[in-house]
Amino acid sequence: MVTNGIERQQILRMASSLPSGPLVLSLYLLLFPVCLATDSASITYHGGPLLTGNLHLTLIWYGQFGRVHKNVIRAFVESLHYNAGANLQPQVSSWWNVVESYQEVAGKGSSPINVKVVKQVTDLKYSAGKVVTSEFIQKVLRKATGGDSNTIPVILTARDVQMQGLCFTKCSQHGMLGDHQQPYIVVGNPESECPGSCAWPFQKPDKGPLSITLNPPNGNLGVDAMVIAFARALVEAVTNPYKTGFFQDNSNNANKTVEAASACWGIFGSGAFDGYTGKVRVDPETGGGFNGHGSRGRKFLIPAVWNPKTKSCWTLL
Q1: Count of domains in the chain?
Q2: Chain segment 194-229, per-residue pLDDT in tens
Q3: CA-to-CA distance for 97 and 219, rounded, in angstroms?
Q4: What digits encode the pLDDT tens for the residues 36-83?
Q5: Which domain holds residue 270?
Q6: 22 assigned to some structural domain
Q7: Does residue 155 sit within a domain?
Q8: Any transmembrane segments, and where (predicted)?
């Protein structure tokens, strides 16, 4: 069903008066399957190359990271191709299958896009400082890759590193480095800086309507929010690596380009609307909100992605 603004506020007021707890939250998510209207302009193909085949990632742990952070991020990458079994549905790999379908829509055939972590680099001394700028990115990437252009470097910043623009929903970004136009990804950690912008739905938003927050599925707000940001950046690096692939026709500003993941911002399940994730599941043991099963027994909350075949936002639930 589709609700108007008054009805949405009534639903949220009702939700705020309910007692808290995983069971009540699960009932709420099932009872109110309202829809979020998306922008009428579709994500279209502009003729440029996509990233296909084997994608080798270099993870750059910039700053102090705990074991949980590293394990969860690596498990997420593994989950893109992991078969969790019939009893563990839906799976993160189903989400990645939608990303792989962009090749077919672009007329480039249909084949798996195999993502694998081939190298990890740790920078505990903050060699480029604690503020992410364009100069910071170039310095860190060149040092970490050693000039190897056959890898996609991913900078993951610790909680005490500031990322310019993080407070304006720039929770991650992708771009190109050097003459070879080597794709790269930067993922910010919103645990300390602007959690109300980039840690939702695990943190109350800074602005907007009343929102129900979820417990992070892996028990750590920082890394579970980083998984969401990383997932968005990875999708857009694959589908629009050189700014000539898939993006929205009316978004010609480089800083406001609407791409395959940003077109579905804030949507995690069917029936989403502003301030409401849509349908998700709650782990009965941990109380964590999730929508996809992955490797190592991990559960993840994965953002919606634009489906190029149905021309609509697609979610696991």
Answers
A1: 1
A2: 888 899 999 998 877 777 899 999 999 999 999 999
A3: 27
A4: 434 446 899 999 999 999 999 999 999 999 999 999 999 999 999 999
A5: 47-247+258-314
A6: no
A7: yes
A8: none
